[in-house]
Design brief:
This protein has 12 helices and no strands. By secondary structure, the chain is mostly helical. The longest helix is centred in the N-terminal third of the chain and has 16 residues. It is elongated.
Length: 192
C-alpha cells in the first residue's frame, strides 16, 4: 500500500534535521507519523522516533497538549515518550492535569517531581494553603503515587501534619523515614 513506504523513511533523520516543531500541526504529517510509528519494525528506532517527537513538542506546550490528548483519546493514534514527559520539570502539574493523563504518566518519575510538593512561596515563606493542597493531592485516588519515592522528599517528611495524616499514614516508607528523617535531630525544625 501507499502507507507501507512510511515505515521505511528515516524518521530519526527527519525529526532531527528536517521537521520543525511548528510543522507538527500539519494533519497530513500527523497521519504520516502515526502510520510510521505503527510500521517501524525496529523497536530501538521506534523508541528513538517517539522520544525525538516528544522532545520536539516540549517547546510547544499547546501543540504538546494536543498530541497528549490525541494519545489519551485514542492510544493507537500516536505514541509519546511518557517517561520523558513524566520526568519533565517544566509542566505546571495541577491536580486536573495529573488526573487527565493518570493512566499514561510514569508515577515513579511523577512522584519524584520536587515542584509538586513545594510548601513555600517564591520568598521561601511557608504557606498553609500549599500544604493543604499537597494533602488533597496525596489523597486523590486517581493519582498512583509511589510512596517509597515520596518518603524521600524532604519537603514532605519534614512536615509533621503531612506525615501524620490518617488518610495516608500507613503508606509511608517508615523504615527510610526512621533512618533519615528529622524526628530526633534537635537542630531540625518541622514545618507546620
Amino acid at each position: 500500500s501507499n502507507e507501507e513506504v512510511l515505515g521505511y523513511w528515516d524518521w530519526v533523520y527527519l525529526l532531527e534535521d528536517k521537521i520543525a516543531a511548528h510543522e507538527l500541526t500539519d494533519k497530513l504529517l500527523f497521519k504520516q507519523i502515526q502510520v510510521a510509528q505503527r510500521l517501524i519494525g525496529d523497536d530501538a528506532t521506534k523508541k528513538k522516533v517517539i522520544t525525538l517527537l516528544t522532545k520536539k513538542l516540549l517547546n510547544k506546550p499547546d501543540l504538546l497538549e494536543y498530541w497528549m490528548n490525541e494519545e489519551l483519546n485514542n492510544p493507537f493514534v500516536i505514541n509519546l515518550d511518557w517517561d520523558l514527559l513524566s520526568n519533565h520539570n517544566q509542566f505546571y502539574y495541577n491536580d486536573s492535569f495529573l488526573e487527565k493523563y493518570a493512566s499514561l504518566w510514569n508515577w515513579d518519575f511523577i512522584s519524584n517531581q520536587k515542584n509538586l510538593f513545594r510548601q513555600t512561596d517564591e520568598n521561601g515563606v511557608f504557606q498553609t494553603h500549599l500544604r493543604d493542597g499537597i494533602k488533597r493531592r496525596l489523597t486523590n485516588r486517581l493519582l498512583n503515587w509511589n510512596w517509597s519515592i515520596l518518603s524521600r522528599h524532604d519537603q514532605l517528611i519534614k512536615t509533621y501534619s503531612i506525615l501524620s495524616d490518617r488518610r495516608f499514614i500507613n503508606k509511608w516508607d517508615w523504615r527510610y523515614i526512621s533512618e533519615f528523617g528529622k524526628f530526633i535531630d534537635p537542630n531540625k525544625q518541622y514545618n507546620e
